[in-house]
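Researcher: For the record, we're logging two predictions in this thread. I'll number them. Prediction 1 follows.
Model: Prediction 1, sequence and structure:
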Amino acid sequence: MSPLLEVDGLKKHFPIHTGVFSRTSGQVYAVDGISFHIDRGETLGLVGESGCGKSTAGRTLLKLLEPTGGKIRVRGEDITDLDQDRMLPYRRQMQMIYQDPYASLNPRMSAGDIVGEPLIIHRVGTPGERRERVAGLFERVGLRPELTRAYPHEFSGGQRQRIGIARALALSPELIVGDEPVSALDVSIQAQIINLLMDLQNEYQLSYLFVAHDLAVVEHISDRVAVMYLGRIVEMTDKTSLFETPLHPYTEALLSAVPIPKYGARDRKRVILTGDVPSPINPPPGCHFHTRCPYAMARCRHKAPLLREIQPGHWASCHLHDAGVRFPLAKPGSE
């Protein structure tokens, strides 16, 4: 059985226009050739620092942004070059939950109209059936059905995000992209929303691409995790392998900054990266991470490492594996 979603060499570059005549003077390499797949009922966590291209990758694979290069396949069918009309059937199967529950809801529409709008656009059911569907979705996400007549300003942040989840569920999609859906919420509310998403996944056999920078949240909800740095995926494996035995120096640094006692990170040596993240307008040659990597070698500065399978099911892009260096580099308790 083919994966629900396959992304192969996906790129999204934004042109930089300058001057009176808006000439193109450069490119922002937001997403620079990433590949992954998501199986039915699976959650892939996509993590990395702010500005690494996570959200752009999510929006591009949904065709909310047109890709610059690469391929996007849904159930084995190539949707990369489809126009808006031919994309409409796929829109029903792929939905998004946005990061900001305050900016993602139209303040001029009632909550019920917001959740029911996708049903109208796709001409699903009669007006009565749509009202019944919306009321059922409100109950399913933990909101009282009578709140369908209220407006977004009458809800708290957590309630607004529940409305966003109900809207995403309206068309019974197979894939939902969560663009940091809990980062703007209080910690106690985050747990409620995460548990709701996991319950909905079990109930409806949903697949998630969960974009986040909070590793503890990703560890809780994901089956596999992909780590991005400056537009590229540098490591990808199941969550247990990633947290126990990271195979890329950048992943190791991320994990050392966020202690997760379950995986013994309390005892892991702290890895402090020097310098700032390079600009995606002018990324470094070779391995993008070599300017901040404490283990960089000469080849890292001019040759980009390929993302390859280092251990069964564990992919990483690092020249250290070619040199026979053993991972993890900062062993627990080392100084």
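Researcher: Logged. Prediction 2.
Model: Prediction 2, sequence and structure:
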Amino acid sequence: MAIAYFHFHGELNDFLPRHKRHTNIGSFFTERASIKDMIESLGVPHTEVDCIEVNAESVNFSYIVQDEDNINIYPISARNFINQKIGLRPEPLSSIRFVLDIHLGKLATSLRLLGFDTLYRNDYQDEELALISHNESRVLLTRDKGLLMRSLVIYGYYVRNTNPQQQIVEVLQRFDLFNAVSPFQRCLRCKRMF
């Protein structure tokens, strides 16, 4: 049986059980596995990861984990603090558009109020949300980390706050959207421009 050691940095620890946060996590494996699959098996969605270093070398999601690998996984917020050679994030979107899951109805209304193209229905199934996000290049906002682990999801973010007023600030900060706010330009129900 082989073992690899994972160390998650910054807010990636939000996805781990308390006793595994900010420490090395030994993960045993018997079969050949990509680093993406092993990271997600520990509970961290790939959409939250910006850079991976294995034995001090930058790798991408297709890297096959080896016995005794020491793996550091960095969040998007660490981008300016590490010397990454291989970025894992896709090309930035030219314009940010969102699709939200059932748990974020008030956030959807707030985003529309601020002028952002936001799809939301309280009857979207997970499969449909992943398809919409993928096919329309929309950022999937969710409180369901399992939804972000779907391979179709390229652009996604796990909203940490449960308070709707704090959620809007969190999303604006995460995507640096304060200068893009254009209030009262969209219908709050259907997202159409006035």
